[in-house]
């Protein structure tokens, strides 16, 4: 079964905490809370991981040929299309 | 990505300003794929993204005489592209009006799913199926949250740059970013919790 965490005070600060932008007093308070609350530690860790995953570069596909062709035509660069 | 990752193989600004077509073609070749992907991420529509792609270079050509090179060429181009894409969103009358507080603020902190899935191996976290789920989760965010998350966390802009780009206050950006991150964290937690359950029953 899925557990639900409701430590309300925490939610508003974790985003800035992860970015390293939380003022020192709040940061200390949050870290103290985390040392006592396993649930909040999980939330912080999984949020950090979530952001990391979205930062991973996607495998890149080249620009589709037809889009490239229309772009070069619009820009009057047809001569350079296959160079 | 961030604008720095736009592939920029030493394009000569002087040559571009002098109207060198070959140099312009090199710029287009080096940057067009990235700009198209960016527009597609913001607009989620291939036709709209293609329009942004074309307009970006047309605007860039027009603005080139005034460009003084204070930022890098790729940063400059990137900003034109993001602005074009945002304008595309506005044209679709989506809600990007600057507001400091959203009406649904009260629901900003829903209960949170508590599964620690950080231990899943990296190849599983970023499998083709997982990547699809990540994309889907971003796509399902409300427009106002999605654009902020994309610029800040996927494109690597700072809070201030994101605020400037969107005409929002930094506070509004932080609020929206938090809500986007909480939402995505929950979505991914639900998904990866299933993966963990499947793994343990194997």
Give me the secondary-structure topology.
The complex is a heterodimer of chains A (83) and B (202).
Chain A: E1 4-5, H1 8-18, H2 24-36, H3 38-55, H4 65-74
Helix pairs in contact in A: 1-3, 2-3
Chain B: H1 13-17, H2 21-43, H3 46-63, H4 73-91, E1 112-113, H5 122-125, H6 128-139, H7 143-154, H8 159-166, H9 170-201
Helix pairs in contact in B: 2-3, 2-4, 3-4, 6-9, 7-9, 8-9
Describe the protein's architecture and organization.
The complex is a heterodimer of chains A (83) and B (202). By secondary structure, chain A is mainly α. Chain A has one domain (8-80). Helices cover 63% and strands 2% of the residues of chain A. Chain A is built from four helices and one strand. Chain A has helices at residues 8-18, 24-36, 38-55, 65-74, and one strand at residues 4-5. In chain A, α1 (8-18) packs parallel to α3 (38-55). Chain A is rod-shaped, with a radius of gyration of 23 Å. The mean pLDDT of chain A is 87. Chain B is mainly α and 202 residues long. Chain B folds into two domains: 3-91, RNA polymerase sigma factor, region 2, helix turn helix motif (Rna Polymerase Sigma Factor, Chain: A); 103-201, Orthogonal Bundle (Arc Repressor Mutant, subunit A). Chain B has nine helices and one strand, in the order ααααβααααα. Chain B has helices at residues 13-17, 21-43, 46-63, 73-91, 122-125, 128-139, 143-154, 159-166, 170-201; one strand spanning 112-113. In chain B, α7 (143-154) packs across α9 (170-201) and α8 (159-166) packs across α9. The longest helix of chain B is centred in the last third of the chain and has 32 residues, at 170-201. At the A-B interface, β1, α1, α3 and α4 of A face α2, α3, β1, α6 and α7 of B. β1 of chain A pairs antiparallel with β1 (112-113) of chain B, so a sheet runs across the interface.
In the CATH hierarchy, the third-tier topology of the largest domain in chain B is known as: Arc Repressor Mutant, subunit A
Helix content of chain B: 55-70%
Secondary structure tally: strands of chain B: 1
Biggest interface, which chains? A-B, 42 and 49 residues
End-to-end distance of chain A, in Å? 58 Å
Q: What oligomeric state best describes the polypeptide chains here? A: heterodimer
Outline of chain A, from the CA principal axes?
Answer: rod-shaped
Q: Helix coverage percent of residues of chain A?
A: 55-70%
Query: What is the overall silhouette of chain B?
Result: elongated
Number of domains as seen in the coordinates of chain A: 1
- Unreliable segments of chain B (pLDDT under 50, ≥5 consecutive)? 1-5, 99-109
Strand percent estimate of chain B: under 5%
Q: What is the fourth-level CATH superfamily of the largest domain in chain B?
A: Winged helix-like DNA-binding domain superfamily/Winged helix DNA-binding domain
Total beta strand runs of chain A? 1
Q: What average pLDDT do the residues of chain B reach?
A: 86
Whole-number mean pLDDT of chain A: 87
Using only CA atoms, what is the Rg of chain B?
A: 20 Å
Uncertain stretches of chain A:
none
CATH class type of the largest domain in chain B: Mainly Alpha
Rg over C-alpha atoms of chain A, rounded to the nearest angstrom: 23 Å
């Amino acid at each position: 079964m899925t557990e639900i965490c409701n430590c309300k005070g925490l939610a508003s600060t974790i985003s800035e905490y992860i970015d390293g932008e939380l003022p020192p007093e709040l940061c200390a308070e949050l870290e103290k809370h985390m040392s006592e609350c396993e649930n909040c530690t999980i939330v912080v860790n999984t949020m950090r991981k979530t952001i990391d995953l979205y930062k991973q570069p996607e495998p890149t596909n080249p620009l589709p040929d037809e889009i490239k062709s229309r772009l070069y035509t619009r820009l009057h660069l047809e001569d350079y299309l296959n160079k | 990505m961030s604008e720095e990752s736009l592939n920029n193989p030493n394009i000569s600004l002087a040559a571009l300003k002098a109207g060198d077509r070959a140099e312009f073609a090199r710029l287009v070749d080096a940057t067009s794929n990235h700009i198209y992907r960016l527009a597609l991420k913001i607009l989620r529509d291939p036709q709209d993204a293609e329009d942004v792609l074309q307009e970006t270079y047309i605007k860039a050509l027009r603005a080139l005489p005034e460009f003084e090179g204070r930022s890098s060429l790729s940063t400059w181009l990137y900003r034109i592209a993001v602005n074009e894409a945002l304008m595309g969103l506005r044209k679709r009358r989506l809600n990007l009006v600057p507001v400091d507080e959203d009406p649904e603020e009260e629901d900003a902190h829903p209960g949170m799913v508590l599964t620690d899935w950080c231990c899943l191996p990296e190849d599983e976290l970023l499998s083709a199926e997982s990547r699809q789920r990540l994309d889907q989760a971003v796509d399902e965010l409300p427009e106002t949250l999605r654009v902020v998350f994309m610029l800040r966390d996927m494109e690597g802009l700072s809070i201030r740059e994101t605020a400037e780009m969107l005409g929002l206050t930094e506070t509004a950006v932080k609020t929206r970013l938090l809500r986007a991150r909480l939402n995505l964290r929950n979505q991914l937690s639900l998904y990866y919790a299933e993966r963990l359950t499947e793994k343990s029953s194997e």
